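Progress note, sequence design subtask.
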């Protein structure tokens, strides 16, 4: 199909190369006329939409893996006791481990995913408590950690009595602790007796710990484990 129109006194010849919708335009300008040729539009390609996308089995399982959550204690909590309990939520029936420096314990979560670690030992100062899912160690959701602090007991001897004088131990006067029987007594009683009032009856000559020693603040259970 072709035609001619006037463009400000100039003749323009239009020739359609095809009856299909036009897209390409080619213009040739001469001194007396412009020639415009309209080319055909390519047939659009068909787009195929997939009905279903299947993820690899590992990715699917990881998306369904419930992250470990520690409910108690809370991050940053401060303790004076040497032991505590850790309670949380994980995937049902998984093998779990709790790690705190050299301390390690293992358990298995219940059918509801709940877990409890009892008698978790704490060191004096900062402690990083980490719970691991041993069944999925390589996955990010398979671990959780919190940081708790155990303070030194300023007066762990309160409630005890001096074995020599039978007087209640109180703050304000130097107190020492026997390195063998772990008994607290006043420093004045130790010096007056020349030894621990209990161990001297057994013929023992222990040394004593002061408030500058870590053993002075440890519980008997902690000392037993050393």
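Output:
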């Amino acid at each position: 199909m072709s035609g001619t129109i006037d463009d400000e006194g100039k003749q323009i010849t239009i020739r359609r190369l095809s009856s299909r919708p036009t897209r390409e335009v080619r213009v040739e300008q001469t001194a007396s006329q412009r020639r415009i040729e309209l080319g055909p539009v390519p047939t659009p390609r068909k787009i195929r939409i997939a009905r279903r996308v299947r993820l690899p089995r590992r990715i699917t399982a990881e998306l369904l893996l419930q992250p470990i959550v520690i409910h108690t204690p809370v991050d940053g909590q401060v303790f004076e006791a040497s032991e505590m309990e850790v309670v949380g939520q994980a995937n049902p029936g998984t093998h779990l481990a709790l790690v705190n420096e050299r301390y390690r314990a293992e358990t298995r979560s219940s059918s509801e995913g709940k877990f409890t670690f009892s008698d978790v030992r704490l060191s004096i100062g900062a402690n990083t408590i980490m719970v691991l899912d041993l069944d999925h160690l390589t996955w990010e959701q398979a671990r959780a950690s919190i940081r708790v602090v155990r303070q030194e007991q300023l007066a762990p001897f309160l409630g005890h009595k001096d074995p020599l004088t039978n007087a209640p131990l109180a703050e304000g006067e130097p107190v020492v602790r026997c390195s063998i029987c772990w008994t607290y007594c006043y420093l004045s009683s130790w010096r007056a007796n020349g030894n621990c009032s209990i161990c001297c009856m057994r013929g023992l000559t222990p040394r004593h710990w002061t408030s500058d020693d870590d053993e002075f603040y440890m519980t008997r259970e902690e000392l037993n484990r050393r």
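The mean pLDDT is 78. Work on this subtask will continue into the next period as scheduled.
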